[in-house]
Amino acid sequence: MSTKLQNDLLLRAARLEPIERAPVWFMRQAGRYLPEYRAVRAKHSFLEMVRTPELAAEVTIQPVDLVGVDAAIIFSDILVVPEAMGMHLVVEEGKGGPRFPEPIRLYKQIKELNAGDPRKQLSYVTDAIKLTKERLNGRVPLIGFSGAPWTLFAYMVEGQGSKDFHIAKQMLFTRNEDAHLLLRKLSDVVAQYLIAQIEAGADIVQIFDTWAGVLAPDDFKEFSLEYIAEIVRLVKEHTQNRAPIIVFCKGANHSLGELAATGCDVVGLDWTIDIAEAKALIGNDVALQGNMDPAVLYTTESVIAEKVNTIAERMEEPRGHIFNLGHGITPEVDPANARAFVRAAKTAYDKVRAPRSV
Amino acid sequence: MSTKLQNDLLLRAARLEPIERAPVWFMRQAGRYLPEYRAVRAKHSFLEMVRTPELAAEVTIQPVDLVGVDAAIIFSDILVVPEAMGMHLVVEEGKGGPRFPEPIRLYKQIKELNAGDPRKQLSYVTDAIKLTKERLNGRVPLIGFSGAPWTLFAYMVEGQGSKDFHIAKQMLFTRNEDAHLLLRKLSDVVAQYLIAQIEAGADIVQIFDTWAGVLAPDDFKEFSLEYIAEIVRLVKEHTQNRAPIIVFCKGANHSLGELAATGCDVVGLDWTIDIAEAKALIGNDVALQGNMDPAVLYTTESVIAEKVNTIAERMEEPRGHIFNLGHGITPEVDPANARAFVRAAKTAYDKVRAPRSV
To answer: Which member of A329, B71, B97, B257 has the lowest number of beta carbons within 10 Å of its beta carbon?
Structure first.
């Protein structure tokens, strides 16, 4: 269907196939820490960049050229999904994060949200994927993504980011049926959206549950995990399992075993668990991604290398391992340090002795 | 030494002694959710309230009268410690959180910080404790507190709150000796400060490590846990163990066993772990406090009771249990819901059957 990949390390790592070294990429790698991104951003608004395939493709490819990562991730935003469902999304320059001026609070609003296939409303994303695939010309895989239902729910009900998401949780705890109705609608749309991305050429997809960590374990299972599992099932079924799925639930280390059991291929880790412990909890049938404290990119080449090597030593072998941070790369990072991380990751397992017996 | 306590449930719970029911209090219970607090606050600045024993005592006692909690916690702020060490602390009305306009970045600044006994600079706190003890007249115990070294370090080096504390972590990762020098100074001061609070009449003290959760497990052990353990040791030694010590490291569920092993009496829990699992990890020799999602206070009396009862069921018996939220109570909470939580907590174990065998 498409050009053969020259570097398919990420896909082989996700499928637990033999790899000569572990691949590396960054969450939010097409971003403000790169002067070349800021140059594009200076001429266009954020949403204009998201909605214009030509611009999205340009910044998507930048880190492949500039930082040397083993994958591109399509430049977009998780909040395009609620927008496609009918919500008005506002991103005002220099006024904090994106917001929905009319948050979802009533049953009537939930009922009125579009729950159909979003590929018409989100054709700019699938077009951007097609264009990026063309431009990449097989150099590295392209990652598609979506926010997880709970994280989208949290933004849609609060109307914006929040310290404690207590308005969103109020709906979870006091209006259980409404909450599940909205989460169900979101799951259906997210599944269709990921399927559309894979059909457009995404080689692998990631589900981001950025706000998983604000939920207690029982609530996470009821309001997040259940829906992620359903999405994984639907996507695998409708795409004949042709693209691996990465699930990243930040702050949900209490449920790593259950996450691995969703049928996903890769579990993303934040940095608040030892990767050896995560591996012991999850077993050898699911790959692991991430685990580095993003603040390490504010240090020096030697500290970065040391911290990268520690993760490799604890992971013991590159099989089923994808280097990444435990959260998105932040705007103040020096690109030289991002490159140092990539260099260190590419050689980290050279330094690890033969696997110890466990 | 002081009036005999009429209600010493908190102290008996902390010491694992038999109790007829589990005590309940709230972190940040003297706060903006109470109209009576806001009435005092309308006439005085935050720092004026902190520094005036008469005002501090007044708002410290409010939740005992108004909410029915089983303990008072002295009204103060964790940032009085860096201020006592020589930093200029600014709290501007309506301008976000407190900040230090001259953050600690250089070795020279660390060297210049006062590291002696802070009881002269913080006599307003010990005076407030003495006055509050008088006013309480033995009704309930009084809790003293301090920020943990890492949390204080994070504010002092950043100069204010932060999303990722990358400037503070930069010092941890690249200037290890400077970081340990500052943490060592902070530990000495915090230990002396807690000893002074106990000598002034605090019946029990809590160490708050609000930002524990931003550190990876290894970093938490090196830069936080080690110093907390030293503080616990020093305080116990200098006060003949007469006041129990609660340690609350938010987001450090990866290290609960190690926290319990510091010699503290109570481990505080956030809401991202099942309390039964925490009990299994920690064992029966240390009491447990907290574990409720603070957002539950935005629901209804019946939801609150249900969630309180679930914690009691999982804890199985009141021995060694202190009801609390997993973080501070927030300003928008309806005081009626705080009272509902207290009522539910006071009867929760009535509904739990005889302990199951484990």
So the answer is: B97
pLDDT at A358: 45
Confidence band for A92, pLDDT divided at 50, 70 and 90: confident
Instruction: Return the minimum-mean-pLDDT range out of A92-96, B31-35, B349-353.
Output: A92-96
For residues A127 and B321, give the distance between their C-alpha atoms in angstroms, rounded to a whole number: 57
CATH of the domain at A171: 3.20.20.210
- Chain A nearest-CA distance from B254, in A, is 7
Cα of B269 to nearest chain A Cα, Å: 12
CA distance A297 to chain B (A): 9
For residue A327, the chain B residue with the least C-alpha distance is: B164
Tens of pLDDT along A259-290?
Answer: 999 999 999 999 999 999 999 999 999 999 99
* Chain-centroid distance, C-alpha B9: 18
Q: Is residue B170 less than 8 Å (CB to CB) from chain A? A: yes
Q: ipTM value of the model?
A: 0.95
Which residues 6+ apart lie within 8 Å of B279 measured at CB? B288, B315
| B176 occurs within a structural domain | yes
Q: What is the pLDDT of residue A2?
A: 59
In B, minimum Cα distance to A167 occurs at B298
- State whether residue B99 is helix, strand or coil: strand
Q: What is the mean pLDDT of residues B104-117?
A: 96
Domain annotation covers residue A3: no
A341 touches chain B (CB under 8 A): no
Give the range of the structural domain holding residue A268, as residue numbers without chain letter: 9-350
**Which residue of the set B15, B41, B314, B343 is catalytic?**
B41
Beta bridge partners of B99: B90
Distances from the Cα of B117 to the Cα of A87, A325, B185, B194, B195, angstroms: 57, 41, 11, 10, 10
Roughly what angle, to the nearest 10 degrees, separates helices A53-66 and A335-347? Answer: 60
Q: Which residue of A has its CA nearest to B213?
A: A272
Structure-token pair, residue B145: 């507190």
> Whole-angstrom Cα distance, residue B16 to residue B284?
9
Q: Give the tens place of pLDDT for each residue, A149-168.
A: 999 999 999 999 999 999 99
Distance from C-alpha of B29 to C-alpha of B47, rounded to nearest angstrom:
17
Do residues A158 and A168 touch, judged by C-beta distance below 8 A?
yes
Whether residue B295 and residue A271 make contact (CB cut-off 8 A), yes or no, is no
* Residue B24 and residue B342 in contact, taking contact as beta carbons nearer than 8 Å: yes
Domain count, chain A: 1
> Which of A141, A139, A118 is CA-nearest to residue A129?
A141
- Asked whether residue B357 is domain-assigned, the answer is no
B314 given a catalytic annotation: no
- pLDDT digit string (tens) for A205-235? 999 999 999 999 999 999 999 999 999 999 9
Rounded-to-integer distance, Cα B94 and Cα A227, Å:
40
